[in-house]
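In this supplementary section we document a worked example of the pipeline. Step one takes a protein sequence of length 206 as its only input; no multiple sequence alignment statistics are reported here. Step two produces a three-dimensional model, which step three serialises into structure tokens for compact storage. The input and output of this example are shown verbatim.
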Amino acid sequence: MNTHITSYKKILFLLALVLLTIGCSLPGLTEDSATETPAAVEKATPTPTVISGNAEPVQSTEDSRCKGLSGQVEILVLVGPAEAVGLEPFAVGSAPFHTTGDSSPYPVEGGGPIKYNDILIKEWGTYEVSFQMDTIITGECTGEPQNEVLSLALEANGEQNVIVDAEGFQGEYPWSGSHSFNLEFPLVEGASVDGEGYQFILHLAP
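The serialised model returned by step three reads:
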């Protein structure tokens, strides 16, 4: 009987040993796994999304010189029969102008009255001029920065009188009427437009 008890104990011992071995091999039941701190979860870094296509052009931050522009158009003309007595065009006045608006094309407006009276004394006699007129300037200023163009229409309405006294001859030459001029200047101080019997010179305000 003792032999049976001993054999029975051996069987129980082996069975307990097998169960212990199986239990230790199961995941999550070991002492190390029970006390293990869960691994930290990595935070995903979002990858920027690149959108293909035509990008908007970069706008220039440079302001147009047309904005807030002001100046004068100096007027040089042949008054009366000046060419017949060998005279060159000479200044009779200046017509002021300025731009308006906040975007291109910038409208231009200006003008005003001009009066002129002078006498020229030469070896052959005298040449006296009286001249008055009203000027009206319209137009626009356009173009990329540093390449702006001033396009003007100048209307002149008035009258003049020229008295010539040359070597015993005296003549009087009255005139009244109007003239229209289409002028285009680069936006440069001193730029000029020349024609037969006249010249216009651009002067920009500082």
